Write a sequence for this structure.
């Protein structure tokens, strides 16, 4: 059974840093591209960063480039999101998920997310 357990979110002041973790189970993370998403209050969920299946390339949304770093620990089936120079607009619930084929029902599974609040 596919499962994601996100953690590490909390209240942080602008300019601060956080490291989010996502422990994945029920599949092998190196077999799929992995994605971090976030959803701000009243807004649609958006992609923050995508790591290639090989783990050698990460694409970031423009607003986080140079501030966020996505990484993974294949042995522990965990992906990370290091977030630096945080801004209030980074506030939201953060989720990770594998990039399943569109016909794969496992693509409908999400974790509970982890809340990041950037505020003074």
């Amino acid at each position: 059974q596919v499962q994601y357990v996100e953690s590490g979110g909390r209240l942080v002041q602008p300019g601060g840093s956080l490291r989010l973790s996502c422990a994945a189970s029920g599949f092998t993370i190196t077999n799929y591209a992995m994605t971090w998403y976030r959803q701000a209050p009243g807004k649609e969920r958006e992609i923050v960063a995508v790591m290639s299946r090989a783990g050698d390339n990460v694409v970031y949304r423009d607003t986080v480039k140079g501030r966020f770093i996505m990484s993974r620990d294949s042995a522990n089936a965990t992906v990370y999101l290091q977030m630096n120079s945080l801004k209030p607009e980074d506030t939201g619930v953060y989720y990770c998920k594998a990039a399943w084929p569109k016909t794969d029902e496992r693509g409908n599974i999400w974790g509970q997310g982890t809340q990041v609040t950037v505020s003074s």
Summary: DSSP finds no helices and ten strands in the chain. The chain has a mean pLDDT of 97.
